[in-house]
C-alpha cells in the first residue's frame, strides 16, 4: 500500500460485481436522492455475470422460473418484461414465459440493461472499477480499501458482495495433475474443451455436475461420464402441479425431526390428491430463513450433518427437460453415478487413474480428465478470497454460525467482527450469509438483500449530508 498517496474518498464501495453487486448498484441508483459517489469493484471484464451468469451455453438454464427472477421485489414481471423487450421466446404467452427456465446468459444482460436505464435518471455517480479489493481496514471513520494495482480508496460505507468461492477438489494427487486433464465446473470453456472419446470423471453430484454433464454432451462427449459422490444424490426436477394448500407456519415451532415427518405427511397427502411433492416444498420457500433460524443450535448441527444433502436435492431443483436428459443418459450408461469415498488420483500414460472405496472395496477408474463440481465453498476456513482471509485474520470479520460464511446480523445485514460488534458501515450479502440465514444464494433472496443494503446506505449517507 502506498502510504504517501492521498486516498480517493467515495461514499460507498460495492465489492463484487456479480449478480449481488449489480443488484445492489441497481437499487442504489433507484433509491438515492442525493449525488452519491459510488464505486463498484469487479475484476471480471463483464459486469453482472459472476459465476452463475457467465456461461454462454444455451444448455445452462436458470434453475428458477423466469417469472421469479425479477431484480425488483415490487415488480415481479420485470425480468419477463425484459425478455419480451429483447424479443426472446416470442412464441410464449405470458404464463408460459413466466414458467420457463430460460438460458442463464439472458440474466446478466438483463441486469446490465436495467443498470444502464436506472443510471440515466439517477443523481448517483456510479463508476465500475476493474480491480479486486485486496484488503479492507477501518481508518479514520472510513473503510480503507487497497486494490490490486496498489490504489487506496476510502469509503464511507461498504457492501461486501464477493459471492461464491470454489471448493477445492477433495482428492489427494489432484494438484499434481497436468492442467489439460482437470477443469473447474465453473470454467465453462475449460469443461467444454475436455469433451471427446475418453471417459471423464466429475467430482460432486449437485447443480455444478448438472452444468458439466449437459455442456460435455453438447460439446460432443462420447466417452462415459462417471459422477463420484459420497451420497450419490442428484438434483430432482421441478414439476408443474397444483399448489399445495397446507399451512406451513406450525412447522416453525417444531424440532427438526417432527418438521421433516410433518413435511413427509404433507407430501403424502398432496400425492393422494394428485399434487406433486414439489408443490409442498414451494409452500415453505418464503420461510427458508425462518425455518433455519427457528432450529436450535443442536438441530442446526443435526441438519448439517444428516439432512443437508437430502434438503438440497429437494430444494434446489432443475428444469424438467434437463432432468430428463440426465435420466436418459443414466439409463443408457453414458452417465454413471458412483457412491464412493475418493482415495486419490495419479497421472498415467493415457490419462489418469482415480482410486476410491466403494462399499468398502477398493475400485479404480481410468479416465481422460476430471471436473471439480464440488460447488460453493461455505466454510469460512476454506474461503480462499484474499480479502475475506484478511478480514477474518484481522478480526474485522468472524466465521458465521457453525463456521459457515461470515457472521452478520440476523435482522439487518451488518458484518460482525471478532468481538461480536456489528459494523454499521459494512453490509454483507449473498452466500457469505449462509450460516446466519441459510437461504441466501438465489436471486429471490439476493434482490431483497440488495435492496435492503442499498436503502441502508442511502439512508445513512443522506442523513450525514450537510
Ligand atoms: C452455477 C450456478 C448456477 C446458479 N443458477 C441460479 C439460478 O438459475 N437462479 C438463481 O436464482 N440463482 C442461481 N444461482 C445462485 C447464485 O449464487 C446467485 O443467483 C448469484 O449468481 C450469486 O451472485 P453473487 O454476486 O452473490 O456471487 P458471484 O456470482 O460469485 O459473484 C461475485 C463477484 O464478486 C467478485 N469478487 C469477489 N471477490 C472480490 C474482491 N475481493 N474484489 C472485487 N470483486 C470481487 C467476483 O469476481 C465475482 O464476479 C446459481 C449459482 C451457481 C454457482
TrEMBL record:
Residues 13-164 form the FAD-dependent urate hydroxylase HpyO/Asp monooxygenase CreE-like FAD/NAD(P)-binding domain. This is Pyridine nucleotide-disulfide oxidoreductase. It comes from Stenotrophomonas chelatiphaga. It holds the Pfam family NAD_binding_9. Gene3D superfamilies: FAD/NAD(P)-binding domain (3.50.50.60). Transmembrane segments: none annotated.
Amino acid at each position: 500500500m502506498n502510504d504517501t498517496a492521498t486516498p480517493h474518498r467515495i461514499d460507498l464501495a460495492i465489492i463484487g460485481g456479480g449478480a449481488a453487486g449489480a443488484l445492489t448498484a441497481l437499487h442504489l441508483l433507484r433509491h438515492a436522492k442525493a449525488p452519491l459517489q459510488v464505486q463498484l469493484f469487479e475484476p471480471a471484464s463483464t459486469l453482472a455475470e459472476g459465476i452463475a451468469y457467465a456461461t454462454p451455453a444455451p444448455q445452462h438454464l436458470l434453475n428458477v422460473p423466469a417469472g421469479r427472477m425479477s431484480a425488483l421485489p415490487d415488480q415481479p414481471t420485470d425480468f419477463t418484461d425484459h425478455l419480451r423487450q429483447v424479443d426472446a421466446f416470442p412464441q410464449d404467452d405470458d404464463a408460459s414465459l413466466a414458467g420457463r427456465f430460460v438460458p442463464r446468459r439472458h440474466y446478466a444482460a438483463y441486469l446490465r440493461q436495467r443498470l444502464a436505464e436506472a443510471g440515466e435518471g439517477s443523481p448517483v455517480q456510479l463508476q465500475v472499477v476493474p480491480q479486486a479489493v485486496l484488503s479492507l481496514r477501518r481508518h479514520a471513520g472510513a473503510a480503507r480499501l487497497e486494490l490490486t494495482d496498489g490504489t487506496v480508496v476510502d469509503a464511507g460505507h461498504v457492501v461486501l458482495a464477493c459471492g461464491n468461492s470454489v471448493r477445492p477438489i477433495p482428492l489427494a494427487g489432484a494438484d499434481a495433475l497436468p492442467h489439460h486433464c482437470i477443469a473447474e465446473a465453473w470454467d465453462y470453456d475449460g469443461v467444454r474443451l475436455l469433451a471427446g472419446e475418453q471417459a471423464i470423471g466429475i467430482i460432486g453430484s449437485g447443480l455444478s455436475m448438472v452444468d458439466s454433464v449437459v455442456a460435455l454432451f453438447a460439446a460432443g462427449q462420447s466417452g462415459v461420464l462417471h459422477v463420484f459422490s459420497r451420497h450419490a444424490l442428484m438434483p430432482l426436477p421441478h414439476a408443474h402441479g397444483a399448489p399445495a394448500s397446507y399451512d406451513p407456519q406450525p412447522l416453525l415451532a417444531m424440532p427438526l425431526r417432527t418438521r421433516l415427518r410433518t413435511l413427509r405427511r404433507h407430501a403424502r397427502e398432496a400425492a393422494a390428491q394428485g399434487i406433486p411433492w414439489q408443490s409442498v416444498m414451494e409452500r415453505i420457500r418464503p420461510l427458508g430463513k425462518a425455518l433455519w433460524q427457528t432450529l436450535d443450535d443442536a438441530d442446526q448441527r443435526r441438519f448439517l450433518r444428516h439432512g443437508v444433502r437430502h434438503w438440497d436435492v429437494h430444494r434446489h431443483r432443475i428444469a424438467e427437460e434437463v432432468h430428463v436428459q440426465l435420466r436418459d443418459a443414466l439409463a443408457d450408461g453414458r452417465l454413471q453415478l458412483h457412491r464412493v469415498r475418493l482415495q486419490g488420483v495419479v497421472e498415467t500414460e493415457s490419462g489418469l487413474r482415480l482410486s476410491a472405496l466403494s462399499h468398502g472395496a477398493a475400485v479404480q477408474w481410468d479416465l481422460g480428465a476430471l471436473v471439480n463440481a464440488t460447488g460453493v465453498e461455505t466454510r469460512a476456513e476454506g474461503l480462499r478470497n484474499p480479502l475475506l482471509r484478511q478480514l477474518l485474520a484481522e478480526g474485522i470479520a468472524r466465521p458465521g454460525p457453525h463456521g459457515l460464511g461470515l457472521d452478520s446480523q440476523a435482522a439487518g445485514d451488518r458484518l460482525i467482527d471478532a468481538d461480536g460488534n456489528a459494523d454499521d458501515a459494512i453490509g454483507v450479502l449473498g452466500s457469505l450469509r449462509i450460516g446466519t440465514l441459510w437461504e441466501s444464494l438465489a436471486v429471490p433472496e439476493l434482490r431483497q438483500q440488495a435492496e435492503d443494503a442499498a436503502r441502508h446506505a442511502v439512508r445513512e449517507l443522506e442523513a450525514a449530508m450537510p
